[in-house]
Write a structure and sequence with these properties.
The complex is a heterodimer. Chain A is 35% helix and 20% strand. Chain A has 13 helices and 10 strands. In chain A, the strands form 2 sheets. Chain A has a 6-stranded mixed β-sheet, sandwiched between helices. A 4-stranded antiparallel β-sheet of chain A has the order 2-1-4-5, with helices on one face. Chain A is globular. Chain B is mainly alpha-helical. Chain B has one domain: ABC transporter involved in vitamin B12 uptake, BtuC (Orthogonal Bundle), CATH 1.10.3470. Helix content of chain B is 67%, strand content 0%. In chain B, helix 2 runs antiparallel to helix 9, helix 3 runs antiparallel to helix 4 and helix 3 packs antiparallel against helix 10. Chain B is globular and about 60 Å long. The chains are: A alpha/beta, B mainly alpha. The interface between A and B is medium-sized, with 31 and 21 residues.
């Protein structure tokens, strides 16, 4: 068990031992076919053993004027884990990503990737250390081909241009966009743009992927496809932190949740625990519903 | 990156150069010869501007500063140091590159319109500095011995040839940039800078590289027109004009570069 797994939830709930995959009932509740995504058994993950965490945040705070966007956020991400970050609108989820990848310097706190201090590094340097990210609102290079978009990401991984092109083709194949390589990016659909952005992040050969609401607004089939791609990436050894508004899709995917509200971590733990956590229910639905739910 | 069509474009460039040269040789009128030279010089200027503002999307109204500094370097080195323009022109390129570093470092903190306007300040400021120094017009000494050593030719068409060589060089450099990591990075920066930065592109470094190359190209190519058809030892009014009049000539309203627009 890595140290991440033993970390107590801020609500005082202790993380319990992993079970198998997601409970079979869950998927049906969501109105999805039961097979949907082959989420690898979680026991695979904890096989990482006592490895130090891949990413560790200690007391990270950021204020914009009077708004405390992040308030002493601490958590860690284990190797090959899929960590979901959820929370209501304005909870600080995207700010958290911006602070990790270097767009915004934190006011206080430490962020370390395998012992490298990330605070103070420019985003391109953070990327080169192995952190890829996608954006809540896609940021393609619209007047370039899909391949060129992804090649730009591959430049971070190699000095050789031909090799960068090869890596880009590889990344496109991984997300299932190989057929569109020569298409211009401004002709793509929303899902294709998301996949392309994912491929661009993958082309830099990251150890850690930060996915910002990659699933938002997708149809069932599209979501299934993306979930499958993401699970596959984890099996290939990539650690993933994914932001989502809603828990539904995430419950099938993630190993652990970190729940943010008003910039603070209000709960950490497995999906089964988090959805029953009083603080979480309250943050989403208000006190009345939390009482109603019998907490 | 795409090798195939690269050779075709190189071929087109050389074909253009050959035709241009043929036309030049046929022309006898001194005024037309001067125009033939000026066209080439402004074309190089456009290419230099395109490196930064076309590929990189960083609209600069201040390229006249590089133009002027390069021109003054060549001229003053000749007048005060007796340095032949054959060496003065590379020196001008160096000065242009150096100026680009000094200008780029602080100015790249700005973006969009703010960047464009800040760039405009440099040639305007330099114009006053050079006027204050008393360099409104600098007479070029006519070299009666070894004129060719000082890039002074009786035959105006040789200036056309020189300018053409510089233009072809600038075009080949541009072509190379367009097909390299450099060019693709600049295009990415233009289309979405935060995304490029997050994808591992060191945006400031590439922008600096672009402005330095651009400044050097701008700085190195003046001088060929030096004595004009008059062939005499008159003052060359073109130098300071290069400082002041530059911005007017740019297609300010276009968002895409003449060549780099995609």
């Amino acid at each position: 068990m890595s140290s991440c797994w033993r970390q107590r939830a801020s609500t005082g709930v202790c993380a319990t031992v992993w079970g198998g995959g997601a409970a079979p009932g869950e998927a049906q509740e969501l109105g999805q076919p039961a097979r949907v995504v082959a989420v690898p058994a979680r026991t695979n993950v904890s096989a990482a053993g006592d490895d130090p965490p891949l990413l560790q945040l200690d007391g990270v705070s950021k204020a914009f004027g009077g708004l405390q966007a992040l308030d002493a956020v601490s958590f860690c991400v284990a190797e090959r884990e899929i960590l979901g970050i959820i929370g209501p609108n304005g909870a600080g989820k995207t700010t958290l990503f911006n602070v990790i990848n270097g767009f915004i310097p934190p006011d206080r706190g430490r962020i370390r990737l395998r012992g490298h201090d990330l605070v103070g590094l420019k985003p391109h340097a953070v990327c080169r250390l192995g952190v890829g990210r996608t954006f809540q609102v896609v940021r393609p290079f619209p007047r370039m081909t899909v391949l060129q978009n992804v090649v730009v990401g591959a430049f971070a991984a190699t000095r050789d241009d031909a090799e960068a092109v090869a890596l880009a083709h590889q990344a496109l194949a991984r997300v299932g966009l190989a057929a569109l390589a020569q298409r211009r990016a401004d002709g793509l659909t929303n899902v294709q743009l998301r996949l392309m952005e994912l491929a661009r992040a993958l082309a830099s050969q990251p150890q850690l992927l930060l996915l910002d609401e990659t699933l938002a607004g997708l149809g069932h089939q599209e979501m299934d496809h993306l979930l499958q791609v993401i699970s596959q990436l984890r099996q290939e050894g990539i650690t993933i932190v994914i932001i989502e508004h809603t828990m539904q899709a995430m419950v099938r995917l993630v190993d652990r949740f970190v729940v943010l509200d008003h910039g603070r971590v209000i709960a950490t733990g497995e999906p089964e625990q988090v959805v029953q956590d009083r603080a979480v229910v309250e943050a989403y639905l208000g006190r009345k519903w939390a009482d109603h739910a019998g907490h | 990156m795409q090798q195939g069509s690269a050779w075709r474009q190189v071929l087109i460039i050389f074909a253009f150069a050959a035709v241009y040269l043929a036309v030049t040789v046929a022309i006898r009128n001194a005024y037309y010869q001067l125009i033939m030279t000026l066209v080439l010089i402004w074309a190089v200027m456009g290419l230099a501007w395109n490196m930064l503002s076309g590929y990189g999307g960083l609209v600069s109204f201040g390229h006249a500063a590089f133009f002027g500094l390069g021109a003054y370097t060549v001229t003053l080195a000749l007048v005060h140091g007796g340095l032949t323009p054959w060496l003065g022109i590379p020196l001008g390129a160096l000065v242009g590159a150096l100026a680009a570093v000094l200008i780029g470092l602080p100015t790249f903190r700005l973006r969009g319109h703010y960047f464009a306007l800040a760039m405009l300040a440099y040639p305007l400021a330099l114009l006053y500095v050079f006027e204050w120094l008393g360099y409104q017009e600098v007479p070029l000494p006519m070299q009666r011995e070894h004129p060719a050593l000082y890039m002074q030719f009786h035959d105006q068409r040789l200036y056309v040839l020189l300018a053409l060589v510089l233009l072809v060089a600038a075009m080949l450099v541009s072509l190379r940039i367009e097909r390299s990591r450099f060019g693709l990075s600049l295009l990415a920066i233009k289309q979405n800078e935060p995304a490029a930065e997050a994808a591992g592109i060191a945006t400031l470094r590439w922008k600096m590289a672009a402005i330095v190359l651009s400044g050097a190209t701008r700085g190195h190519r003046r001088r060929t027109v030096c004595r004009g058809a008059a062939g005499g030892d008159t003052a060359d009014g073109l130098w300071p004009a290069g400082l002041g009049a530059g911005p007017g000539g740019y297609p300010l309203w276009r968002r895409r570069g003449p060549c780099g627009g995609r």
